[in-house]
From TrEMBL:
Membrane-traversing stretches: none
UniProt xrefs under SUPFAM superfamilies: Restriction endonuclease-like
Putative restriction endonuclease domain location: 15-176
Superkingdom per UniProt: Bacteria
Protein name: Putative restriction endonuclease domain-containing protein
Source organism of the structure: Clostridium homopropionicum DSM 5847
Signal sequence bounds: none
Length: 193
């Protein structure tokens, strides 16, 4: 399994990130920079179907859904925007507090983040981003695995920790925790032509 390209130095900030080539997909996690390859066709089909189901549901509602590339910036206390050390581009982001949205993306914790695992991003999605999203209190985090056709869902509990993952297969219909009357049909998400 390939690894994402990592820059050598580990003290990058949002101001550095803004100066990197726009045709490269970089993310910052704790000041370390990671570049991902373009997603596969299968990855994109899954992303589009999830976006379709979520965006259809959200029509006329307050929450907004975004597909990558869409910057999510997690600021530490007293960070100026240019000093932020955590900037990610989740495959899908749902934000219900519009005060977190600006022309650069989202500053603060989205309500839902969905990552679709690629061979080069698996360790980042399962370890680094899981920790980052929990630390920043993202209410719900989905990890979608195209090969195994499963989704793992992490939800914050009352102590602001993620509960043990709920795991669903392509045969399941999944209720979105932050949008309790939205049910995602996984057979449509994992459908292959």
């Amino acid at each position: 399994m390939g690894q994402p390209l990592k820059k050598k130095h580990g003290d990058y900030r949002y101001s550095d990130y803004l100066n990197w080539p726009e045709d490269e997909r970089w993310e910052l996690i704790d000041g370390n920079a990671y570049m991902s390859a373009a997603p596969s066709r299968r990855h994109q089909e899954i992303q589009v179907e999830l976006l379709r189901q979520i965006s259809n549901y959200l029509m006329g509602k307050d929450c907004k859904v975004y597909g990558s590339p869409f910057d999510v910036r997690f600021a530490r206390k007293d960070d100026l925007d240019n000093d932020i050390k955590d900037v990610v581009q989740p495959d899908i982001t749902v934000v219900c507090d519009r005060s977190k949205l600006d022309d650069k993306g989202c500053k603060g914790s989205p309500d839902l983040i969905i990552e679709i695992v690629s061979p080069s991003t698996a360790s980042i999605d399962y370890i680094k981003k899981l920790s980052l999203y929990e630390k920043n209190m993202v209410k719900e985090y989905w990890i979608v695995h195209p090969t195994d056709e499963i989704v793992m869902i992490y939800k914050l509990n009352a102590r602001n920790n993620y509960e043990r993952a709920e795991i669903y297969s392509k045969d399941d219909e999944v209720r979105v925790g932050i949008l309790s009357d939205l049910i995602i049909k996984m057979d449509e998400v994992f459908k292959q032509d």
